[in-house]
Amino acid sequence: MKKNILSISLLSLCLAVTAQTKKVTADKIVGQVGDKIVLLSDINNAIADYKRQGQEAQLPPNAECAFLEGQLIQKALVLQAEKDSLVVSEDDIEAGLDNQIRGFINAYGSKEVLEEVAGRTVYQIKEDFRIPFKERKLADQMRGKILENIKISPVEVKAYYDKIPKDSLPFYESEIQINQVLSQPKASKEIEEYCVKQLYEYKRQAESGVKKFDQLCKLYSEDPGSKDNGGQYNLNRTSKEFDPTFTSSAFRLKEGQISNVVKTKFGYHLIQMVSRSGDDAVVRHLLKIPQVTEDEIKISVKKLDSARTLIQNGYIGFGEAVDKFSDDESSKFNGGSITARDGSSFLNIDQLDKDLVLTLKNLKPGDISRPNVYTDERGRKMVRLIYLKNRTQPHRENLKEDYNRVADRALEEKKRNALSKWFQEHLPTYYINIDEAYKDCSSLSNWWKYSSK
Can you tell me the distance from the alpha carbon of 336 to that of 235, in angstroms, rounded to the nearest whole number? Predict the structure, then answer.
């Protein structure tokens, strides 16, 4: 059972609450494990949520059976978690609910729109979701406890691989593993002062009523993520997604107030507090990025050229060069590895920017490029050293080149089997009841064995 089927999304619950405020519909219990019940509306809302998100093609056959099975699994895990005295702290629940609510606000554009759509206040929505959220967390904890000691050995990996028919093995296109050292050229003091002067002029225009702040953001902001939206972001005081200086500066403002110029690692900002409710706020910002000249770029190129010489002469390794020379703090924790969205270090060519593709063209595994100047997704001039760690040829999956991939799948299969065994042992110990409407669900056969007549 896929993880995304095991639980009902909060968004579907949100829309379910909306429907219930407008019209009372018939509902009934369709499944029960111990004192934990599954309602018909739980199943219907989960399926409707898939369709609303355009994922109808991904619904499994007999979706009602699959979603009921997922809910029964979750209820059994929650029941056992309570028996084993597992605990989810109120702080964890509160933080998780706040994060979900922020996601809804981002999706709908504002707290007011969310409350209008849901027909509930944010506080009421949080309370409606508290028990389902806690149950999901308990189920995850119990699942983790059951599987915490499941490991996989090389012998088991080989046995798993040998069972796969050779014509069913996946085929991989050419992939690469690359690491980088990044240097961000620093703009001159004069350019930075000019940016600050521009921003204070924009602030004067907004505060004097010459132009509205959101119009100034659309005209002059250099943040592509918010420019077209008048510079607007939904912000939470505890969020790690924003620069801490930006967040702390924003929350010192009163509603409608515009900050003085704020400097962060992204550039210089004006911030306006639009509205605030506790630790949540809607803000607008106007970003200016000081432009660098060829002189500043040459300084970064010279720095990375020196780093390349040190690496090639054996004085330092590439990982040490990342630690000493890179201006990208996040890359220092993984040796400068460039990863895909799923966290994999194996990348396809189409996942790379065109400048990087050209840089790699003449590199062999083990080679380090000369300093390469490029423009990043934020429009900043950057300089990088590229280390081509590995390049695979198109090939059918094998243990030599793809051991980690095979091992991951083998481990997942072992965990599924362990979880299945755990349920076979524990189902007889629970009170189970399933509605007769689901008697033809083959996936529920083990549950029906112990269902109360």
Answer: 29
Range 94-102 contact pairs with CB under 8 angstroms and sequence separation of 24 or more: 95/238, 96/133, 96/137, 97/126, 97/129, 97/130, 97/133, 98/126, 98/236, 98/238, 98/279, 98/280, 100/10, 100/129, 100/133, 101/125, 101/126, 101/280, 102/234, 102/236, 102/239, 102/280
277 pLDDT above the threshold of 90: no
Q: How far apart are CA 33 and CA 69, in angstroms?
A: 11
Is residue 273 within 8 A of residue 232, CB to CB? The reply is no
The stretch 83-91 carries a mean pLDDT of: 92
Q: Is the pLDDT of residue 238 over 90?
A: no
Mean pLDDT across 342-371:
89
- Do β-strands 29-33 and 432-434 pair in parallel, antiparallel, or remain unpaired? antiparallel
Instruction: Walk across the sheet containing 29-33 and list its strands.
Output: 36-39, 29-33, 432-434
Residue 197: pLDDT band by 50, 70, 90 thresholds?
A: very high
Q: How far apart are CA 85 and CA 48, in angstroms?
A: 34
From CA 91, how far away is CA 97, in angstroms rounded? Answer: 10
406 to each of 153, 346, 410, how far by Cα in Å?
12, 14, 6
**What own/partner pairs with CB < 8 Å and gap ≥ 24 does 1-4 have?**
1/66, 1/69, 1/70, 1/73
- Domains, the chain, in order of start with CATH, read 3-152+412-449 (1.10.4030.10), 173-186+293-395 (3.10.50.40), 189-288 (3.10.50.40)
What is the pLDDT at residue 351? 87
